[in-house]
Amino acid sequence: MLGKPGCHLCDDARAVIERVAADLGVRWEERDVTLSAEEFAEYGDQIPVTFVDGVRHDFWRVDEARLRAAVGKLLR
After folding, report:
1. What distances in angstroms separate CA 21 from CA 1, 28, 51, 57, one per listed residue?
2. Alpha carbons 22 and 47: distance in angstroms, whole number
């Protein structure tokens, strides 16, 4: 997930991602979009941005069922 400090949407997205990752036994990481000029230029107005297996999956809000389905496909 790409997020930034003080972002309430990032807090919401993080909670969903943490829950899905824990339930499915997968790891995840979060990066601060403000630390990379390149990522900030590309994604700064879309945060939080979630990725599944390196591919942009969602932005602004994370749909839990959609995230579970996408991660589940990778685990099969």
Report:
1. 12, 7, 13, 15
2. 22
Over the stretch 5-25, which tens digit does the pLDDT of each residue have?
A: 999 999 999 999 999 999 999
The CB density around residue 29, as the number of other CB atoms within 10 Å, is: 8
Q: What does the DSSP assignment read for 39-53?
A: HHHHHTTT-SEEEET
Question: pLDDT tens, 25-76?
Answer: 999 999 999 999 999 999 999 999 999 999 999 999 999 999 999 999 999 8
Can you point out the beta strands (E) in the chain? Answer: 2-3, 31-32, 49-52, 55-59
